[in-house]
Amino acid sequence: MSEENTILFSDFALAAPLLRSVEELGYESPSPIQAKSIPVLLEGKDVLGMAQTGTGKTGAFALPLLSRIDINLRAPQLLVLAPTRELAIQVAEAMQAYARHLPDFHVLPVYGGQAMEPQLRGLKRGVHVVVGTPGRIQDHIKRGTLKLNQIQAVVLDEADEMLRMGFIDDVDEILSKTPANRQVALFSATMPDQIRRIAQRHLRNPVEIAIKSSTSTVKAINQRYWAVSGMHKLDALTRILEVEEFDAVIIFVRTKVATTELAEKLEARGYAASPLNGDMNQAMREKAIDRLKRGSLDIIIATDVAARGIDVARVSHVVNYDIPLDTESYVHRIGRTGRAGRSGEAILFVAPREKRMLGAIERATGQLITPMRLPSQSDIADKRSAAFKNQISEAMESQDLAFFETLIEEYQSEHDVGLSEIAAALAYLAQKDRPLLPAEIKETAQVGFGDRQDRGQGRDQDRRDEPRRPRQNDDMARVKYRIEIGHEHGVQPKNIVGALANEAGIDSKYIGAIRIFDSHSTVDLPEGMPNEVFTQLKRLHVLGIPLEISEAAPGDSEGERSGNRRPPAGPRKFGPRGGGDSFGGKPRRSKPRS
């Protein structure tokens, strides 16, 4: 798929609610596996796909198969088999996101290591899609709690991993119990003989799709990642821009809206930044790229599609503010730097729940991406001081300072003070709007992703990614919130902690007491969360159920159902120093030039 002839999701005959979700999620063009699989699956044909993790397989089967779901039939119609609980949860979450505009849609992840009771309740209520590990799916079939008679399609995701983990006999048996006329999509990174035999036995004249990775990266590009772990993603970006020696930067985000929002926030911090997205007309896009080339613009915030074809030699850095959806997109992104024989820098922000994609990128490119340390307060102070010294040197070399020398001599004589004191006072006046010594920075603790060999593999079904009870910071002011999920929904504290930490990016040490009642729960969260974090909280789902978070009323803490719920509390002042620019002072107007 060439950059010049881009296929869009709107070119496919997907159901309108799914296309709407795709647009809102910011997915503009399909990955190669999606471009080839979606039309075939929409036609009802079986697919035998060879593709690595991180190529966009979930969208490749979820979008076409969800388009054919009968929402009025509350019975499992789509069954997805995954090798690990991590992948099962990931696929179920993706399904929920794609189907957000399908009314009363239900998807249920089932896997070992989780209590049976919540899964039994979910199946009893009725679901449209079941995503699970083979062993637990077998358990439900034998119990009679999972009926397969209405199954329209079965997906085997990462079939070679299921073979490696000893699940292939379960897979074979499960497939044999599904209706004979069901559709099957089998995806595997490799195609060993046992997988090929499964395909021959259960797939009917499948269309074979093989995606060869073209992800060899430019060796001149230095690739680093930052493990996102707190609530200040924007602060982290600002710190990096403050300290990195950059010429021009392209920052990649997922959605068109995010390009504009982030550009405005960076402009407010004094950076020359502009959005670049598909909603801009060609003239506006060309103007932005021309400004980037000429140096009147330093930073562009772009979506994948909008940035294709950009060839600007002065782009020294690419920042993946939002992790790409597939490895091909990552390579396209970082390929915007390291041009014309120059070296380049690529920085990737990775949340804990995205570590699987980090591992996929490393495997696809054959290169390790090294962790980076965020610049400290001292680093920023050193950088600002060095830039100020350079400004002094440039002024001494290029300006006629005779008048000012006379003025200083007169002041020294009149007030009997030393030249160093006068110089210090003048330096303060020159820099008081942007202090050389920044105000104390709210440090964001970094969370590692464990052993590099394990990262992104999803090997351990019983221990990996199991949320622990939060380690509380008892000195932090908190507010009690009510969420509309409780015992009757099968929720446990770990489900709530996992959603808050992985989806909203709230470090577990900021999460306070959690109490679960029959129909709702309460959770203590930091007072004065940033706007973007609170907005994300209001969109969260746990076990497929929207949280509908609101500030708790007094009766909520005793398990009573309050008849008059208060509206969601807005962000308040966060901690003793409040919000705003965590670097202190007013935003700078242009980046320092060396």
TrEMBL record:
<dbReference type="GO" id="GO:0006401">
    <property type="term" value="P:RNA catabolic process"/>
</dbReference>
<feature type="short sequence motif" description="Q motif">
    <location>
        <begin position="7"/>
        <end position="35"/>
    </location>
</feature>
<keyword id="KW-0347">Helicase</keyword>
<dbReference type="Pfam" id="PF00270">
    <property type="entry name" value="DEAD"/>
</dbReference>
<dbReference type="Pfam" id="PF25399">
    <property type="entry name" value="DeaD_dimer"/>
</dbReference>
<dbReference type="InterPro" id="IPR034415">
    <property type="entry name" value="CsdA_RRM"/>
</dbReference>
<feature type="domain" description="DEAD-box RNA helicase Q">
    <location>
        <begin position="7"/>
        <end position="35"/>
    </location>
</feature>
<keyword id="KW-0067">ATP-binding</keyword>
<dbReference type="InterPro" id="IPR000629">
    <property type="entry name" value="RNA-helicase_DEAD-box_CS"/>
</dbReference>
<comment type="similarity">
    <text>Belongs to the DEAD box helicase family. DeaD/CsdA subfamily.</text>
</comment>
<dbReference type="InterPro" id="IPR014001">
    <property type="entry name" value="Helicase_ATP-bd"/>
</dbReference>
<dbReference type="InterPro" id="IPR050547">
    <property type="entry name" value="DEAD_box_RNA_helicases"/>
</dbReference>
<keyword id="KW-0378">Hydrolase</keyword>
<dbReference type="GO" id="GO:0000027">
    <property type="term" value="P:ribosomal large subunit assembly"/>
</dbReference>
<keyword id="KW-0547">Nucleotide-binding</keyword>
<dbReference type="InterPro" id="IPR044742">
    <property type="entry name" value="DEAD/DEAH_RhlB"/>
</dbReference>
<dbReference type="GO" id="GO:0005524">
    <property type="term" value="F:ATP binding"/>
</dbReference>
<dbReference type="InterPro" id="IPR001650">
    <property type="entry name" value="Helicase_C-like"/>
</dbReference>
<dbReference type="InterPro" id="IPR014014">
    <property type="entry name" value="RNA_helicase_DEAD_Q_motif"/>
</dbReference>
<dbReference type="GO" id="GO:0016887">
    <property type="term" value="F:ATP hydrolysis activity"/>
</dbReference>
<dbReference type="InterPro" id="IPR028618">
    <property type="entry name" value="DEAD_helicase_DeaD"/>
</dbReference>
<feature type="region of interest" description="Disordered">
    <location>
        <begin position="444"/>
        <end position="477"/>
    </location>
</feature>
<dbReference type="InterPro" id="IPR057325">
    <property type="entry name" value="DeaD_dimer"/>
</dbReference>
<dbReference type="GO" id="GO:0005840">
    <property type="term" value="C:ribosome"/>
</dbReference>
<dbReference type="Pfam" id="PF03880">
    <property type="entry name" value="DbpA"/>
</dbReference>
<comment type="function">
    <text>DEAD-box RNA helicase involved in various cellular processes at low temperature, including ribosome biogenesis, mRNA degradation and translation initiation.</text>
</comment>
<dbReference type="Pfam" id="PF00271">
    <property type="entry name" value="Helicase_C"/>
</dbReference>
<feature type="domain" description="Helicase C-terminal">
    <location>
        <begin position="233"/>
        <end position="380"/>
    </location>
</feature>
<feature type="compositionally biased region" description="Basic and acidic residues">
    <location>
        <begin position="451"/>
        <end position="477"/>
    </location>
</feature>
<keyword id="KW-0963">Cytoplasm</keyword>
<dbReference type="GO" id="GO:0033592">
    <property type="term" value="F:RNA strand annealing activity"/>
</dbReference>
<dbReference type="InterPro" id="IPR012677">
    <property type="entry name" value="Nucleotide-bd_a/b_plait_sf"/>
</dbReference>
<dbReference type="GO" id="GO:0005829">
    <property type="term" value="C:cytosol"/>
</dbReference>
<feature type="region of interest" description="Disordered">
    <location>
        <begin position="550"/>
        <end position="594"/>
    </location>
</feature>
<feature type="domain" description="Helicase ATP-binding">
    <location>
        <begin position="38"/>
        <end position="209"/>
    </location>
</feature>
<dbReference type="InterPro" id="IPR027417">
    <property type="entry name" value="P-loop_NTPase"/>
</dbReference>
<protein>
    <recommendedName>
        <fullName>ATP-dependent RNA helicase DeaD</fullName>
        <ecNumber>3.6.4.13</ecNumber>
    </recommendedName>
</protein>
<dbReference type="InterPro" id="IPR005580">
    <property type="entry name" value="DbpA/CsdA_RNA-bd_dom"/>
</dbReference>
<keyword id="KW-0694">RNA-binding</keyword>
<dbReference type="GO" id="GO:0003724">
    <property type="term" value="F:RNA helicase activity"/>
</dbReference>
<dbReference type="GO" id="GO:0070417">
    <property type="term" value="P:cellular response to cold"/>
</dbReference>
<keyword id="KW-0346">Stress response</keyword>
